[in-house]
């Protein structure tokens, strides 16, 4: 017998194994990004809301998975035979809040979700889910970027920068000196930035993006 919780666990597992959040999976399938939100899985009246067969078909097509694989997820309640390595995940808007990073820009404390991702050699690596259109066309709303605070950065790298005021941005490193950091904008509609080094709390290199 199919269970409501197992169906949703299978969708979450399909997203996880493709390095996506549930919202990014929905967008990849051409659906509204909120289609698979946990808040939509139960109605206001407390009744179970099931994903439509059309939605399931679209995510299978978008990820290249077949029905047999999806049924396997259902049978195992979304669990894989061997747990995949995971890294912390945070939303872009949350990245400016206190309590999520230490002074070096390493993930800190609770409040993080997790997504599976292969070992990349940085125990402090984390995933950041993009929101908004300020980083288009390279990064779109719902894309996930993998950030390595331990990786060295050089000119031309795409980086996440947090200012001492708590502003977080994704830019391309144009120049780095002892006194200032020059950042080029990814979206030509938005200006670049020049910051004094004392205005920057930390910057970290982007290693990978799911698109």
UniProtKB/TrEMBL annotation:
Alphabetical keyword list: DNA-binding, Transcription, Transcription regulation
Statement: the UniProt record of this protein carries the keyword Oxidoreductase: no
Domain Peptidase S24/S26A/S26B/S26C: 88-206
GO molecular function: DNA binding
Statement: the UniProt record of this protein carries the keyword Nucleotide-binding: no
Name assigned to this protein: Transcriptional regulator
Organism: Magnetospirillum fulvum MGU-K5
Lineage: Bacteria, Pseudomonadati, Pseudomonadota, Alphaproteobacteria, Rhodospirillales
């Amino acid at each position: 017998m199919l269970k409501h919780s197992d169906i949703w666990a299978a969708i979450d597992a399909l997203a996880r194994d493709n390095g996506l959040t549930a919202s990014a999976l929905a967008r990849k399938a051409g659906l509204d990004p909120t289609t698979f939100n946990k808040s939509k899985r139960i109605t206001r009246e407390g009744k179970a809301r099931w994903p439509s067969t059309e939605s399931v078909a679209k995510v299978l097509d978008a990820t290249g998975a077949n029905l047999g694989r999806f049924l396997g997820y259902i049978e195992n309640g979304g669990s894989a035979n061997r747990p995949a390595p995971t890294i912390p995940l945070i939303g872009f808007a949350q990245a400016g809040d206190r309590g999520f990073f230490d002074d070096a820009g390493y993930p800190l404390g609770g409040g993080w979700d997790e997504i599976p991702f292969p070992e990349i050699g940085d125990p402090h690596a984390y995933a950041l889910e993009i929101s908004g259109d300020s980083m288009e066309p390279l990064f779109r709303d719902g894309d996930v970027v993998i950030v390595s605070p331990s990786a060295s950065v050089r000119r031309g790298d795409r980086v996440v920068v947090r200012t001492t005021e708590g502003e977080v941005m994704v830019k391309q490193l144009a120049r780095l000196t002892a006194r200032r950091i020059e950042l080029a904008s990814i979206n030509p509609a938005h200006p670049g930035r020049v910051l004094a080094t004392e205005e920057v709390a930390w910057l970290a290199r982007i290693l990978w993006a799911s698109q």
